[in-house]
Amino acid sequence: MSNYSPLNLLVRKLNNHVALDDEDKAALIALPHVVRELSPASYIVREGEAPPGCAILLDGFAYRQKLAADGGRQILSVQIPGDPLDLEHLFLDCADHNVQALTQVRLAIIPRAALRSVSMQRPTIAHAFAVNNQVEASITREWLLNVGRRDARTRLAHLLCEVATRLQGQDLVNDYGYELPMTQEQLADATALTNVHVNRTLKSLENEGLIRRDRRAIRFPNWQALKAAAGFDPRYLHLGQQAAAAPG
Amino acid sequence: MSNYSPLNLLVRKLNNHVALDDEDKAALIALPHVVRELSPASYIVREGEAPPGCAILLDGFAYRQKLAADGGRQILSVQIPGDPLDLEHLFLDCADHNVQALTQVRLAIIPRAALRSVSMQRPTIAHAFAVNNQVEASITREWLLNVGRRDARTRLAHLLCEVATRLQGQDLVNDYGYELPMTQEQLADATALTNVHVNRTLKSLENEGLIRRDRRAIRFPNWQALKAAAGFDPRYLHLGQQAAAAPG
DNA sequence: CGCCTATTTGATAGCCGTCAACCGGAGTGG
DNA sequence: CCACTCCGGTTGACGGCTATCAAATAGGCG
Predict the structure, then answer these.
(1) Do residues B64 and B164 both lie within one domain?
(2) CATH assignment of the domain containing B184
(3) Residues B137, A135: C-beta atoms closer than 8 Å
(4) Which residue of chain A is at minimal alpha-carbon distance from B136?
(5) What values do phi and psi take at A62, rounded to 5?
(6) In this predicted structure, what is the pLDDT of residue B168?
């Protein structure tokens, strides 16, 4: 089974948290879908819309985003390959935030009806979707703590640690370094700083030897020290645990 | 049916978002549970724990909370009567944040196994739980925007608007005013400010005529103006919509 | 009345934002 | 092959919002 399909990536992602059996995997891979490619900054979901399908990020990076009345933008999360981008629309009709492509992206778009029906027929899959949503919620809570209660240095370091750790879970990191395709302005929107201050803070982290940069590639010469500086504790990512009992 | 039970409050809350039929309601009310009373500041869930049951807030207020390495505390949400406090443990084994009583509280505690089994047998109930979780996630995202991209005045005003609106949904507001049982220090932890600055900001909102205060009771002499000052748009609360199709 | 906690107020300091200019690499067109 | 352009990154000067520190006031409760 599991001939090549773009949805293998989704299977792998869900399987990180919940043990799927072969039938579950086959059911996921059999989901109807179209693959679409979008250029950087394209909107994948717009606040207020009711998207007809849910998008899975196959390749590239994306982010969730929301705007304040005065035009200020807050990036709410960074999504990496394998991440479902709007699974919440299994449950809500109306998008409450925007999802935008960070780089060139490839998406698999699955009709909501098909997702609903597979999650009705296979409780473990429904459970895996719910777990995925809860892990995202946990990450958002950590971001709230990050923006609310950490200074610029700690905040940026924490973001770098999180992305590195999540990418490693998908085997997208080379010897403790990775390409972070975000401009400093986007980093600022994610950390609630300004691009200028992000620049200064990155340089200071670099001077301290906590990170090394070459264009947008980031390396971690001293991962332990960076984690310590960030106060980074990966438990909120809920890795490792192959979730609880599946329902039932 | 629906003889008096503390769980009627849960039924009502879930029914705000998803239309439950009589059998769903009966199944919810039939859930085994114990009622427990806790004093202010008691921990209801501790980060790292695996609670054996899920708590429903029957009476009083509670909040979610997380600590940074340096001791800074970020309040992640305010929970009002009717709110499930840790439905996420239907899906995750390990708590990623703390839940604490704000006032004297009365809880109904339902064993996780019973919740799982009812959500297996009644897809609409499972759907309602998931919708509830997603609405909470949406609120957290709005808080991230609030803390990240609004100044102190707007931020506090937004929090007041949100709590007022949610309380109104549960008919807990008297002629546009309510008792907000939070100290200014707790307001500070929710808005990522300091108690001193919360104090000054509240006074300034009061001087502008946007709020009136009498001890911890808050009134809104000019609700529209407050909403405007806060940039408050209640769509993120996902009220009004009786969710989508129930699954299936 | 006395203690404790919460609120209020003032003075001072600092982190980070704002504004503005300059630099530097990548792509484009001549 | 080199100017031109553009976007993003870098740097400096300055200002402001909010934190910090400290002390006084006010309420609640024994």
Answers:
(1) no
(2) 1.10.10.10
(3) no
(4) A137
(5) -140, 175
(6) 87
Residues 124-153/A with CB < 7 A to strand C:
151-153
Q: How many CB atoms lie within 10 A of CB A32?
A: 11
Question: What's the gap in Å between the CA of A71 and the closest CA on chain B?
Answer: 9
Q: Both B120 and B12 in a single domain?
A: yes
In DSSP terms, A55 is beta-bridged to A109
- CB of B200 within 7 Å of some strand C atom: yes
Which of B76, B107, B124 is a domain's end point?
A: B124
Q: Please state, in angstroms and rounded to a whole number, the distance separating the CA atoms of residues A107 and A36.
A: 5
Closest CB to A137 among B66, B67, B133: B133
Measured in angstroms, the CA of B87 and the nearest CA of chain A are apart by 10
**Disruptive mutation site among B88, B134, B144, B156 for chain A (greatest number of A CBs within 10 Å):** B144
Return the structure tokens found at A109.
Answer: 């778009």
Give the closest of A93, A96, A143 to B244, CB-based.
A93
Question: For residue B204, what are the domain limits?
Answer: 150-245
A139 falls within a domain: no
Closest chain A C-alpha to B89 CA, distance in angstroms: 9
Say if pTM beats, i.e. exceeds, 0.85: yes
pLDDT of residue A241: 53
Looking at residue A246, its pLDDT comes to 32
Q: How far is the C-alpha of A90 from the C-alpha of A99, rounded, in Å? A: 16
Kindly report the number of other CB atoms within 10 A of residue A180's CB atom: 20
Which of A17, A76, A91 would you mutate first to test chain B, the one with the most B CBs within 10 A? A91
Which CATH number does the domain housing residue A79 bear? 2.60.120.10
In a 3-state reduction of DSSP, which class is residue A62? strand
A94, A169: one domain: no
The residues, ordered by sequence, that sit 6+ positions from A4 with a Cβ below 8 Å of its Cβ are none
Tell me the pLDDT tens digit for each residue of B122-180: 989 999 999 999 999 999 999 999 999 999 999 999 999 999 999 988 777 776 578 89
Q: How confident is the model at residue B2 (pLDDT cuts 50, 70, 90)?
A: very low
Q: Tens digits of per-residue pLDDT, A94-140?
A: 999 999 999 999 999 999 999 999 998 998 999 999 999 999 999 99
Number of domains comprising chain A: 2
> Is B147 in Cβ contact with A147 (below 8 Å)?
yes
Q: What is the pLDDT of residue A24?
A: 97
